Amino acid sequence: MDSRSKSKLGHLLIAKSMAEALLITAVSVGFYFVTTNPYLRGVLDYADNQTVAGWVVDEGQPAARVEVQLYIDGIFMADQTAAGYRPDLREARRAEDDWHGFVFNLPPVPPGDHEARVYAAHAGGAGARRTLQLIGKPLRFRVTGSEKGGASH
Amino acid sequence: MSSVAKDEPQGDARLTSDAGERQLAAWEIASIGSSMLIAEWIGASVAGGSRFIVAIPITLAFAFMIVSHRLHHETLRDLGFRFDNFLPAGLLLLLPMVLVAVVCFVLGRRLGGQTNFHAWHAGTPIAVQLALGFGWGLAQQYVLQGFINRRAQLVLGKGWLSVLLVAAVFSALHLPNVWLAVATFTGGVVWAAVYQRAPNLFALALSHALMTWVIIATLPPSALHHLRIGFKYFS
Question: Which of A44, B52, B85, B153 is 20 to 30 Å from the Cα of A31, by its Cα?
């Protein structure tokens, strides 16, 4: 093998490596957008032993209602469509209409410290994948006997 | 494996190399291996099994191998696309194939499997099954022997070291299916050793097809996890 062929082969290997690196990058970015909705905005406002409330807007589709799921201490509790009345969102220009809030009414929760997390459900890959995205930050609340414990954002 | 060199007395000048060529050959092996791994793992998982995405690294690999053969001045005959040594290659393969078939049959019985020669591509005639298997085997053996084995010989020379390297690459491409990796390592050793003595890809492809057919026919599907590899292993 002459030096010119070696040089060509080396360049070819570099080009192939770069093409594959670009492919992996493109697939990774594509995967992110398929499994994640970067336009979701929302906040978990309040959590106690009776209710968990907040709002969520899909800024990519402002008129759409987002499905949300509530987890307490990592255990699924309930789901609903975030379509509750929240005029403050439109006033703050976070939404185009007043209907993006959610309020979960909790079943009895045992005494102790608990954590509430609300996720937005996102269907991607033509329905092949369904992923959950955390809305806002998790809120912790304490239940002491019959007292009502609460935490607000 | 000292007999390997004796079996090809005429030698192949294209399988001798200097240090630079050895480094390039090692890089070529790594490059083709990485293309296959990208197809198996990235294409089948992140891209959701998209055939288009899987086809990109495979196409890149085949295009690269063709250009590499040209730069190395390798002919189709050099690679093993020939018929003159079909019989010697077939004879070398015969005993290991019979042994593997017997082992598979006994193992299948002990694992409670029932021999079913229609299990591979169920619903199609056995001749069609074998024809499909031959085509798939030829593609795999071309990559494994026609390219990787030849480059491994540039890096490590003829003999056990290069044979083991080829088998290790072949086996690694079947991970994380551990038992299939063990089976392909065994097959890889036999096929690579036979290729170095009698480079004939048609005989190897036939052997590949027959062995796959026997394995599927005799071993219960769960034994080799339905032959799933890469990310599909977990699905």
Answer: A44
Q: How many pairs of residues across A and B have Cβ atoms under 8 Å apart?
A: 57
What does the pLDDT look like over B146-192, one tens digit per residue? Answer: 999 999 999 999 999 999 999 999 999 998 888 889 999 999 999 99
Which pLDDT score is estimated for B4? 43
Q: Could you read off the pLDDT of A4-29 as tens digits, one per residue?
A: 888 999 999 999 999 999 999 988 88
* Residue B225 CB neighbour total at 10 angstroms: 16
Percent of chain A residues topping a pLDDT of 90? 58
Question: What are B79-115's pLDDT values in tens digits?
Answer: 999 999 999 999 999 999 999 999 988 888 888 777 7
Chain B partners of A129 at a C-beta cutoff of 8 Å?
48
Contact A9 B24 (CB under 8 A): yes
Determine how β-strand A112-124 pairs with β-strand A84-85. unpaired
Contact B40, B231 (CB under 8 A): yes
Sorted by sequence, the CB contacts under 8 Å of residue B183 that are 6+ apart come out as B215, B224
- What CATH class does A40-152 carry? mainly beta
User: Looking at chain B, how many residues does it have?
Assistant: 235
Interface with chain A: mutation pick from B16, B22, B24, B147, highest number of A CBs within 10 Å = B24
Q: Domain-by-domain residue ranges, chain A? A: 1-35, 40-152
| Joined tokens for residue A35 | 């499994």
